[in-house]
Amino acid sequence: MASSGPVSAPVADLVGAFTPAVFARHINANSTAHAWWLERKRAAYARFESLPMPSRTDEAWRFSTLAGVALGGYAPSPEGAAAATPPALAVESAATLSFVNGRLSGSSPVSADLAKRGVVVSTLSDALARHPGLLREHFMAQPQKLGSAKFAALHEAFIQDGAFIHVPRGVEVDKPIVVVHGASGAGAAVFPHTLVIAEDNSRVTVVDHFVSEGESRQFACGANDLYAGHGARITYAAAQCWSFETLSLQFNSTVVRRDARVQSLNLHLGGRQARHESLSQLQAPGGFSEMLALTIAAGSREYDQRTLQIHQAPNTKSDLLYKNALLDKSRTIFSGLIVVDPDAQKTDAYQSNRNLMLSDDAESNSLPGLEIQANDVRCTHGATSSRIDPEQEFYLKSRGIPPKAADELLIFGFFEEVLSRLESEALHDALRTLIRTRIQS
Is 187 left (phi over 0), alpha (psi -120 to 50) or beta? Predict the structure, then answer.
């Protein structure tokens, strides 16, 4: 059953607190930044104003609850917001960055050895001064293709700061780099961003942790850019733990060059309504993109997932596996598309969305698709939605296991296929702990 928003809405609901006057104050507060950065912000705000809000006729928003995407009641920097550094994911790290409401609140630097070898773990504002060329080349370099161009423009216009990670050619970072993006205060609007540039034959693991202070109503409009140069390897994990009253929009963009590999795992545990868009572009032979996601949907929450795998060169591979566990009256939407360009012969692409229905009242919507323009490819896709195995359910009940504990066991069993793909046992265990904490909350 498709949901739709109102035919018309008050202007305040459409732009919220993101009016021209508010944007002008934002620009004045950042007036010392590079001229090209400010010009990009102005151009982005002009796009935000000109682009329409999603409507019931937009195929890219099919099945989405459009009424929940109104922007009224949010503010970029709410008065009285706390500045406490949010807790980081419990994993030993090579470096950390922590942001609250878009401003750096704490950090731990990389080791002297990694710094000497040119590894940079810093902020976007620092990169504006020290690495403007890299920032101009890679920051939001890929246009939005999955329906949220208006919100991506809002992100670019109002972004305050974010993480900048650069690993030079041939350098390997053994431990994860952890970035925490926090939101504090009722009505807070935050614009988290993580930019990862892995040069040729480098290797790095980056973890984003999105967390709210308390259970206030908030708006998170985030993005990340992952660039893997020739032969590079990036492992990226994101744990979305916003409050259960948060409206979340997240845009992921990945570029994979020759013989490079990017593994991304997105964990969705928070938010009242959360939309996640993931674009992966394989631009040179030998590139491999592994796109993974795990979602726990409970209550009346909605999780909307849109993906696009674009094969632009021959002999490339992509593998997508999204798993959703649905409880209560929750809803999930998955819409994925594999595109194979005419010159991308010998493409090997896979796409699977699997939904575990733990309630008769939950709803899952799956729309996998293929668009193939080459004649020598192997592309498969599929989607399943099913209840738990009755024998498993009977076994758990016969052992006196309470329903909530049984659901937890079933969810972990269902998720393990994805979690086991992580090479790092420490990261695997940290994500399992986070999932268990969220289930029990």
Answer: left
Domain chopping of the chain, boundaries: 11-284, 388-441
- Local mean pLDDT, 10-residue blocks, the chain (441 residues): 40 66 92 93 97 94 94 73 66 95 94 98 97 97 95 97 98 97 93 98 98 92 98 98 96 98 98 98 98 97 98 98 97 98 98 95 96 96 89 84 86 94 95 88 70
Residue 282, strand partner residues: 256, 311
| Structure-block tokens of residue 431 | 């994500």
How many other β-carbons are positioned within 10 Å of the β-carbon of residue 386? 10
CB 137 within 8 A of CB 123: no
Q: Residue 435 belongs to what H/E stretch?
A: helix 425-440
Residue 19 in contact with residue 48, Cβ under 8 Å?
no
Write the DSSP symbol of residue 322. E
Paired strand residues for 337: 308, 369
- The whole-angstrom separation of Cα 82 and Cα 185 is 7
Place of tokens 């930044």: 33
State the Cα–Cα distance between residues 361 and 441, nearest whole angstrom: 21
Structure tokens at 16: 């919220």
How much is the pTM? 0.93
